[in-house]
Write the structure tokens for this entry.
Amino acid sequence: MSAVDFLLWVRGPGLAIASIIFVFGMTLKLFEIFMLGRKKNLAELRGSGIKEGFVTIFTRSRHADTYSTRHTKFTYYSGWVFHLGLFITVFLLTPHIELFKSFLGFGWWALPTPIVDLTAVIAMIALLAILFHRITNPVLKYLSVGQDYVVWALTFLPLLTGYMAYHHLFFRYEWLLGFHILSVCILLVFFPFTKLTHAMTLFISRWYNGMMGGEKGVQQ
Amino acid sequence: MTELNTCSASGDYPLTQNVVPILHEIRHALRKLLDEGEATIIDLRAMPFAPGEEDELEARLGTGEVTVRIEALGPSVIKETSYAGVWLVVHYNTEEEIMGKFIEITHVPSIIESQTEDIKSGIQALQEGLTIDS
Amino acid sequence: MSDDKTLAEVLRNQGVSRRGFLKFCATTASMMALSPAMVPRIAEALEQARRPSVIWLSFQECTGCTESLTRSHTPTIEGLIFDAISLDYHHTLQAASGDAAEHAREEAMKENWGKYILVVDGSIPVGHENYSTIAGISNLKMLEETAKGAAAIVAVGSCAAFGGLPMANPNPTGAAAVSDIIKDKPIINVSGCPPIPVVITGVLAQFLTFGKVPDLDSLGRPMAFYGKNIHDRCYRRPFYERGEFAETFDDEGAKKGWCLFKLGCKGPITYNACATTKWNEGTSWPVESGHGCLGCSEPRFWDMGGFYNALSTPTIDIAKTAGIGLAAGAAIGVAAGALNRAKKAKATREHETVTVDDLEKGEKS
């Protein structure tokens, strides 16, 4: 297969398949979660808990107690750095915004490309540190299963291939671009069937946690 | 052709900074000419120049005492720059379009010399001319 | 018919002096991106080169390649090289036509068997042979016949090199490239829509000078002209690096000469000499004139997702496919959700309560 055929396939059928499976999977999960419903709360409610739910989505993003602050420093900081780096790299780079514009119909303001280049590198370094931590920390190593490593690779590859493509590293650009898009397709295909769904479910679970706290009158 | 640079939609782009390295190359070539008698030719078309840089190079080289104009397949203008031994050779076609631009570091660019083939043709032509007369 | 004169003799007969010949060699070397030190070697080679017989076959093409090459009003270097070859057959340019022309071709082939250069422009319909014929002979047959005695084949233009426009989706004629059909002869792909004229003649000049096929890349194109990516030689690259892009063709960014990535420039995946050699004797090229590169020297450039869509966009409608995924996910999700609820309800119904007595009874027995 030539570079052109490969590039045309990933930009066409490849992305089509990936987007169908991704949206299918996430929608399926969403319906399954919500249709199961919740147990009726028979206690007397202090408040509806709705506002508290939304507040918790944000407050859960940072440490709230000294135990967490002291004992989970690495996970906290590396997690933040990685997620921020990934967010900026994916959503604030011009070629990516063009991609979103092509199916959303609208785009948005972009960061200068050299800055996004830097955030991509920072995100990759954070990911490597996270992997190193997972392998060397005895508790984490004990708990880790195959999926944890697979998901790490699925996330790392688009960053790596994107960086290589932009800098024309080692291979011809057509191949690098093709591999970058392919790595994103693979990530999308596996996304709804792995723990990566936390990207969607974290908002739901934090909201419910906060709501429950708000209902019962406990500080959320 | 420099007028076209103002017509195109171009802005302030970074310079290639190739002018000074080429001048150094010329200096080394002059040394080689003096010490080893070996000539050097630099093809200016093979180098990337930002607009204005080629003019800057030619301005720095300046004009010397000799300018030669050849009419063969269109004009060619060969001039010695203000540095002896450094010649600027520009080949044009009959439409005055630049076909080639070279810097030759030599005592005299070989294209100026009368060529053996042409001398042979000249002898023949002269011979025919004389036999007609006599 | 090609006679036995060498190239130098041909030029001499046209009134070109030795000086003129040296000028010709120097500018040819420059054009072929060869070092000036090679000029004596080129002069020597061209002095001895015999006028090669060239048969030019035009198939499913727009004649743009021939136009690109021959549309010079005054003698340029391209014109000279063109004159230096013995163009024994070119059905657009030659005076003879019909049977006389085909007879001329057959004679030239016979006389120069194994030594003539076959130049092809236009794609060949393989889907139904008779979609394109010359003098009643299908393109496919004519190519196969003529290729048999050729020393080398030069596929001029993206149509001959890769299939070009006729091959674009849905390829109604079953168009194919020369290299899809001929497998046993050296093929030089000089792609482009059209190729830069100086590239066409540069390849011919290289063949004349060295008598062999030049170094080719993985797509069969001469490395001298197609070895570099447009993006890597583009003078607007600093803007790409800085993230300064033109949004429309006449906004402030466009006027300042910013990168044309968002306007669909295919420079990053295109290999050609446009950024350095440029067009019209070095006047300008598409990006310098403010239009993104079409990628015209690459295979399937007509189907590369649209000339004005950025390289990072998909070539199919993602909104539609996402919609399909959403509908399917919702449908199955509702079904799965309903099943889950039913399971939960059943479990609640079948839930057996246990009293202390039941437990005590259990312990005693």
Summary: Chain C touches chain A through 48 residues (CB under 8 Å). Strands of chain C lie at 53-58, 86-90, 116-121, 124-125, 133-134, 137-138, 150-156, 175-176, 187-190. Chain C has three domains: 7-224, 230-303, 318-364. The first helix of chain C runs from residue 7 to 13.
